[in-house]
Amino acid sequence: MSKDDLLQDIGTLLIQDKQISSHPWEHLVIVAQVKDRSAQVDGFAYPDSGEAIPTGPRNFDIIDKFEALCKVMQEPGKSPWKACLLRIENESGHISIDFEYDHPEKWLITPATVKQMAETLRPDMSK
Asked: How much of the chain, in percent, has pLDDT values that exceed 70?
């Protein structure tokens, strides 16, 4: 499967995920942390009100897709990315994606960082 196919699948699975779709949102921000033998996918739904609702997929196929994306993107002789930041704008369907190769902790969402990361990852709602 190609990078583009995997990204399309990830976006579709995220939007259709029952946990994520249970929240009204204008912006969805998802962080995937991929390590050697595990992956973690968490994020926030941002409704019109501007609050940040912690969320994450319940469909574990999404985790498999992120792991596959990491493998497909790895260049020979180079380290794979370790974290992926995916943003979806509901109205336009626009998806943007960034990858972190050296400092995956900058997007790490944990109970201790959830409030800080909700603000750090907050999209520009003025657009």
From this structure: 98
Q: Give yes or no for residue 127 having a pLDDT over 70.
A: no
Question: The domain that contains 89 carries what CATH number?
Answer: 3.30.500
Tell me how far apart the alpha carbons of residues 99 and 79 are, in angstroms, rounded to a whole number. 12
Q: CB of 70 within 8 A of CB of 83?
A: no
HEC profile of the chain: CCHHHHHHHHHHHHHHCHHHHCCCCCEEEEEEEECCCCEEEEEEEECCCCCCEEECCCCCHHHHHHHHHHHHHCCCCCCCCCEEEEEEECCCCCEEEEEECCCHHHHCCCCCCHHHHHHHCCCCCCC
| Per-residue model confidence as pLDDT tens digits over 40-80 | 999 999 999 989 999 999 998 999 999 999 999 999 999 99
Total domains present in the chain: 1
At 18, list the tokens: 């029952």
